[in-house]
């Protein structure tokens, strides 16, 4: 089996730069647009540099997925840091902010379109899936900081995801729709979790 390029600090920086460029291509144009040539153009590097560090398209897609997840985790971590230090008057809005990307409704719609499209690129989907535990851990810490730790991360994510799909498909404001649904559900979910704990005890 052929070996890849020797790992050096400079090489690692270049690989990271290309991974971020690959993530930018996916974010802006979708997984179908991902190619060595597109990444080279986005990074302002030669095609040969891209193929040197990422010989195959699957490897490039995996790097893009990892970089996308890194950015998502970092964004959620920033929201957690602000919530933990300054309190949060509207927990539902804070959770929505952590889950959704920055930007307007068009940016959120594009984010979900790319997530769905990622399922058709196995290497990209696998990279996103392998990074999911890191995102879940940050979101669990956020729910705990907001006093909503009785609500599981998968449930909170499902509520936000469902609200986004409904809002986008019906032409409603995305963030407000997600916030309102989550705000309505959080008290009941938190109470149900407390009741379940009491029953176990």
UniProtKB/TrEMBL annotation:
The segment(s) forming the HTH tetR-type domain are: 12-72
UniProt keyword terms in alphabetical order: DNA-binding
MF terms per GO, please?
A: DNA binding
Pfam families xref list? TetR_C_31
DNA-binding region residue numbers:
35-54
Q: Organism's domain of life?
A: Bacteria
Gene3D superfamilies recorded for this chain? Answer: Tetracycline Repressor, domain 2 (1.10.357.10)
Can the keyword Ubl conjugation be found in this entry's annotation? no
Keyword DNA-binding carried by entry: yes
Q: What is this protein called?
A: DNA-binding transcriptional regulator YbjK
Q: Which organism is it from?
A: Cellulomonas hominis
């Amino acid at each position: 089996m052929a070996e890849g390029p020797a790992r050096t600090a400079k090489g690692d920086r270049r690989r990271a730069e290309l991974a971020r460029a690959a993530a930018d291509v996916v974010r802006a144009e979708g997984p179908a647009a991902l190619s060595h040539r597109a990444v080279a153009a986005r990074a302002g590097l030669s095609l040969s540099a891209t193929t040197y560090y990422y010989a195959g398209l699957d490897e490039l897609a995996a790097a893009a997925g990892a970089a996308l997840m890194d950015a998502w985790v970092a964004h959620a971590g920033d929201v957690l840091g602000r919530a933990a230090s300054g309190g949060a008057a509207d927990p539902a809005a804070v959770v929505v902010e952590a889950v959704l990307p920055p930007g307007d409704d068009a940016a959120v719609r594009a984010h979900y379109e790319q997530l769905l499209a990622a399922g058709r690129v196995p290497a990209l989907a696998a990279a996103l899936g392998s990074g999911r535990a890191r995102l879940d851990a940050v979101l669990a810490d956020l729910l705990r900081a907001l006093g909503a730790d009785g609500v599981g991360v998968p449930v909170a994510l499902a509520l936000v995801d469902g609200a986004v799909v409904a809002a986008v498909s019906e032409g409603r404001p995305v963030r407000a729709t997600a916030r309102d649904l989550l705000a309505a559900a959080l008290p009941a979910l938190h109470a149900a979790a407390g009741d379940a704990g009491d029953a176990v005890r």
